[in-house]
Design a protein that fits this description.
Layout (H helix, E strand, L loop, with lengths): L3 E4 L5 E5 L6 H54 L14 E9 L5 E12 L2 E9 L21 E7 L1
Antiparallel strand pairs: 1-2, 3-4, 4-5, 5-6
Length: 157
């Protein structure tokens, strides 16, 4: 450490000047901690986005497979051996199935439209990842909240 003294013309010491290296350790510590903080915030931000992406993918899958289940069930019911939707009478039928998805909270609203003609049928299935929340399957209620993910499948035959 270099010590600098200010001297007058006679050679006596008037005062001691500050060392130019004083406070370097503090500056170095603050800089290193700021760098470590920036890196950790960046990693935390990436991890949070990955968690949100994974959750959104799961919710989208639940909604899509709920809609697919609704379509498949409506097609199965519309077979001539079941004939629940009555092929020869033009009408619109709404069916609701809940308790679907990986957590059992998904639901599907299925509209079967036979108004056009007996040869044409339109089935629209809307699947949601969050339904009424009942654990019992195949209830007749599907009231998804505003933050639910919706997927729709439409078929014509």
């Amino acid at each position: 450490m270099v010590k600098n003294f200010k001297k007058n013309k006679r050679g006596s010491v008037l005062y001691k000047t500050k060392d130019f290296r004083s406070g370097f350790v503090l500056l170095f510590a603050v800089t290193i901690s700021a760098i470590v903080l920036a890196i950790s915030l960046g990693v935390a931000n990436i991890a949070l986005k990955e968690v949100k992406f994974g959750t959104n993918a799961r919710d989208a899958n639940d909604a899509f497979f709920a809609a697919d289940t609704g379509i498949e069930y409506a097609l199965w019911i519309d077979k001539p051996i079941h004939n629940e939707f009555n092929t020869f009478v033009p009408k619109v039928t709404l069916k609701v199935w809940s308790g679907l998805g990986s957590s059992g909270q998904g639901c599907a609203q299925v509209i079967v439209d036979k108004r056009t003609s007996p040869a044409a049928t339109i089935i629209i299935s809307k699947g949601y990842n969050i339904g009424n929340g009942d654990d019992a399957p195949l209830h007749d209620s599907c009231n998804p909240p505003l933050n639910a993910v919706e997927r729709e499948i439409k078929i014509n035959y």
